[in-house]
Write a structure and sequence with these properties.
Udp-n-acetylmuramoylalanyl-d-glutamate--2,6- Diaminopimelate Ligase, Chain: A, domain 1, Protein-Tyrosine Phosphatase, Chain A, six-stranded mixed sheet, 16 helices, 21 strands
């Protein structure tokens, strides 16, 4: 089902209070800030960042066929006769365009935040609600101060459901974004040790995530993870914000969405759940009990938005993790094969422990097959970083992970804490670890690759995938 975005020149002028040198009659069918992905009919917004200035790429955007560009000055190599809309500040203009996009929206708006599982939960919601009607969700992880207004500007007015992931690194960031999104339903996946470099403790992280309550619409709903240690703190904050409908998910009997049974399968897992008194059985195309728990929260959110619980549950069989977030790759060589679990997009202590648990439940394809992990630094953990890395050693031993490869300054603490029999190889960066991993992978092995995004763990994933035998 194709949804159309349509911004007329007058719409954009009204939203941004911009002005043109000539009369404008264009129509834009999408909004972009990246000239590399600009398509014919797009509206290009020239943002000035710390490293690049979008005004330097306006000419390239017009070459790609953009309908118009929002600028704060005359770009070089662009004719004054071009459809340019001048504003005082192009970032403020993008925010205004996003607010206008939200104002004209007619559907139910859902927002997702949390320390881990935001993007996965957003994608589960996209699949479920798309089975119910016209649905829009932000692309990738466009969840920050420019990603949220950009996504709102792309929200088709005819969408029956709009889903927005909202992230933050510091206190005070999430509240303004929530007030911009104005969700009818907000879900917080979990509170974990992420971004500790910028927070004194986990309580302050919970309070920062609770800023999502600032934008909740009157009579809106909040979906919270009851298994998380900060549930009561978040629920109390929601009440302080005047939110009356607080729903919970987890394993306990008192939850609105409760996990009844979880069984790993070759394609992901089989789940039985009680969603507000309705028993549902469904397949989830993702591995790990943590994914099953998150699916409860998303099912509860979808049901709260008006979705049929059985239609939504059945749709989850078509969910597969986004790139770098748990996807499975069977690498077939000439005489054997092995499995790669790609968790390379990001890492935190809680997410890494979940990945260890998933790997422990994954059966090697041969009796001689081993369970291996290739781990890169977990970033933004502050003064506790060394200890949080080293403390994972016992989890790896307890879950019988055979060999561990590590890279990054902080992962040296984990590598040293491991028993010698569990140590594979160590390097300061992922690029220098590639050959050690590639040379030692054996048929029947299962290997999980995980690390913070800046560690570029995907280079190891790509090197292992390149071992596939060519097809003739």
């Amino acid at each position: 089902m194709t949804l159309n975005v349509a911004w007329t020149a007058q719409d954009v002028v009204n939203a941004t209070h911009g002005h043109s040198l000539h009369e404008q009659t264009w129509i834009a069918h999408d909004v972009t800030i990246d000239s590399r992905s600009t398509k014919a009919g797009d509206l290009f917004v020239a943002l000035k960042g710390p490293l690049h200035d979008g005004h330097d790429y306006v000419a390239k955007a017009f070459e790609a066929g953009c309908s118009a560009a929002i600028v704060s000055r005359q770009p070089s190599q662009v004719s004054q006769a071009s459809p340019l809309l001048f504003v005082n500040d192009s970032f403020v203009a993008l925010e205004s365009l996003g607010q206008a996009g939200r104002q004209r929206a007619k559907g139910r708006i859902l927002a997702v935040t949390g320390s881990v599982g935001k993007t996965s939960s957003k994608e589960m919601l996209r699949i479920m609600l798309r089975a119910m009607g016209r649905t829009y969700a932000n692309e990738g992880s466009l969840n920050n101060h420019w990603g949220v207004p950009l996504s709102l500007s792309r929200l088709p007015s005819e969408a029956e459901y709009g889903i927005f992931e909202i992230g933050m690194n510091h206190a005070g960031e999430l509240g303004p974004l929530s007030r911009m999104v104005k969700p009818h339903i907000a879900m917080i996946t979990s509170i974990e040790a992420v971004h500790l470099e910028f927070f004194p403790n986990l309580e302050s992280i919970a309070d920062a995530k609770a800023e999502i309550f600032q934008g909740i619409q009157p009579d809106g709903s909040v979906i919270l993870n009851h298994d998380n240690a900060y549930y009561s703190r978040l629920a109390a904050s929601a009440k302080d914000h005047g939110i009356k409908r607080i729903l919970s998910f987890g394993q306990a009997g008192k939850n609105d969405a409760r996990l009844l049974a979880f069984t790993p399968t070759a394609e992901g897992c089989s789940v039985q759940a009680d969603i507000q008194g309705q028993i549902v059985n469904y397949q989830l195309g993702a591995f790990g009990q943590h994914q099953a728990i998150n699916s409860l929260g998303t099912l509860l959110a979808a049901h709260t938005a008006g979705g049929d619980i059985h239609v939504c549950a059945n749709a989850l069989a078509h969910y597969h993790p986004p790139q770098g977030r748990g996807g499975i790759h069977v690498i077939k060589r000439l005489h054997d094969s092995f499995i790669v679990i790609d968790e390379s997009y990001n890492a935190s202590p809680a997410a890494l422990r979940a990945a260890i648990h998933v790997l422990a439940q994954t059966q090697p394809s041969l009796p001689t097959g081993r369970r291996l992990m290739v781990l890169g630094d977990m970033k933004e953990l502050g003064d506790s970083s060394a200890a949080l890395h080293a403390n994972l050693a016992q989890d790896l031993v307890d879950h019988k992970i055979d060999i561990v490869y590590c890279c990054g300054p902080m992962m040296s603490h984990l590598f040293e804490a491991l028993p010698p029999s569990h140590r594979g190889a160590y390097s300061l960066d992922s690029a220098h670890l590639v050959s050690s991993v590639v040379d030692n992978i054996k048929g029947g092995d299962v290997v999980t690759i995980k690390g913070s995004h800046s560690m570029n763990m995907n280079v190891i994933v790509n090197a292992l995938k390149a071992l596939s035998a060519p097809l003739y």
